[in-house]
Amino acid sequence: MLTVSEALAAITSTVQRGPVVEISLEDALGQVLAESVVSDLDSPPFDKALMDGYAVRAGDLAGRTTFEVIEEVTAGRVPSRSVGTGQATRIMTGAPIPPGADTVVPVEETEFQAGVPDSILGQVMLRNSANCRAGQFVLKQGAAVRRGTQVMAAGRLLRAQEIAALAELGYARVRVIRRPRVAILATGDELVPAAQSPGPGQIRNSNEPMLAAQVQQAGAEPIRLGVARDERQALRERIDAGLQCDFLLLSGGVSAGKLDLVPSELAAAGVRQIFHKIQMKPGKPLWFGILERSTNESPCYVFGLPGNPVSSMVCCELFVRAALRRWQGLEPAVVEPIMAQLTANISLSSNRPTYHPAHFAWTSEGPRVSLIDWVGSSDVCATVDANCTALLRAGDHKWNAGDSLEVFLWP
Ligand code: AMP
Ligand code: MG
Questions:
Q1: C-beta of residue 180 within 8 angstroms of C-beta of residue 327
Q2: Is residue 163 exposed (0-12), middle (13-18) or buried (19+ Cβ within 10 Å)?
Q3: Is the distance from the beta carbon of residue 188 to the nearest atom of ligand 1 less than 6 Å?
Q4: How far apart are CA 28 and CA 41, in angstroms?
């Protein structure tokens, strides 16, 4: 049986990066950049006013309080006159600084007297020029970004801020790693859909919607294949359909039960097993393999996840997420845990490391983690209070409030 870190190493050395596609910037949220982004312009593209006020020459500020207003420039317009000694141009935030001027005096620091009633021209008095610094409220051309410099490298997750930068830099279309298509297949004779009342011996299928949500949170596109009954023919047909995708996630049927047909049917479909079973709790029965195709076709990576919903959830966050991150080119593929202090004493005895659903919080005293109460790995309702797993090492141990644990955050 592999350890968790051996299993993660096997996954990240098996999965290859996915293909690059070009998409519209509108569709880029949550995708991963596949090109380096270089600025085609200086930002700002011109010396720019950062306040509504008057553009003047800094050299005038020492001796002079009254200036002749020669022009008004609003954002989107360009100045037509240069500012000479004793002159000022009324300027709005975002407008280009006129030649000659280098400093903006905010309108609040001035008093204006129109030359003739309602004219934009006239005289402006500075209330206290001692308050003004040379060069104030002017952002010089290229101060933020110089034309030709790299602003982002490939491998970056595109959030609102990256999308804003791409828009500023003219990337109306952007090259990203194609979203992985992830087929999801629940198995089990006992499963009925959420809309149905379970009959005797039946339960509702919570894994399919859960896994679809998890892969969506990881930036992938879920393809729902419904439920396969615990019968070879039905299972094999759905497996073959799922193998058309980049990933296939099955839930259930991977343990040692009489109707746990998933490993043998995957083998029959040509999927090569990389590992089966890992030293962890919950999630021991996890299965991972690969379907290799012809050289110019990318493989399908297959996970057989445990049927118990919390096991499935924990394995998906730990292992499937690492595989998806590797496919998407996100570094690191395996997200590092953070350390948090326990809020209560606990004791636990287990022959395998336990990834216990827990609640993590940043508090004013630092990061804290509390285990959630659960009755075991079928208790999916308990996970609504969880936002991470906390790692408890194997053996017979007691932990005290204040002890530090490794915590794996969920999205
Ligand atoms: P299995 O690995 O197929 O033996 O399933 C282990 C446990 O998980 C059993 O109690 C199943 O009823 C339950 N289970 C399997 N699949 C699902 C599912 N899609 N939704 C909820 N529970 C499931
Ligand atoms: Mg089953």
A1: yes
A2: middle
A3: yes
A4: 22
Kindly provide the b/e burial profile for residues 312-322, where b requires at least 16 CB atoms within 10 angstroms of the residue's own CB: bbbbbbbbbbb
Residue 312 CB less than 6 A away from ligand 1: no
Q: Read off the pLDDT of residues 90-118 as tens digits, 9 standing for 90 and up.
A: 999 999 999 999 999 999 999 999 999 99
Pick the ligand that lies closest to the CA of residue 259. Answer: 2
User: In the numeric block, which tokens belong to residue 301?
Assistant: 């990576």
**49 vs 46: CA distance, rounded Å:** 9
CB of 193 within 6 A of ligand 1: the answer is: no
* Whether 338 contacts 388, CB under 8 Å: no
Write the single-letter amino acid at 202.
Q
C-alpha distances (whole Å) from 326 to each of 58, 305, 321, 387, 411 are 55, 19, 9, 23, 17
Of all ligands present, the nearest one to the C-alpha of 224 is 1
Give distance in angstroms: CA of 192 to centre of ligand 2.
Answer: 13
Residue type, 21: V
**Best mutation site among 191, 260, 265, 383 for ligand 1, i.e. most ligand atoms within 8 A of its Cβ?**
191
For the stretch 244-283, pLDDT in tens is 999 999 999 999 899 899 999 999 999 999 999 999 999 9
Count the residues in the chain. Answer: 411
Structural domains of the chain, with CATH: 4-19+178-328 (3.40.980.10), 21-43+144-177 (3.90.105.10), 48-139 (2.170.190.11), 338-409 (2.40.340.10)
55-85 residue pLDDT tens: 999 999 998 999 999 999 999 999 999 999 9
> Does residue 282's CB lie within 6 angstroms of at least one atom of ligand 1?
no
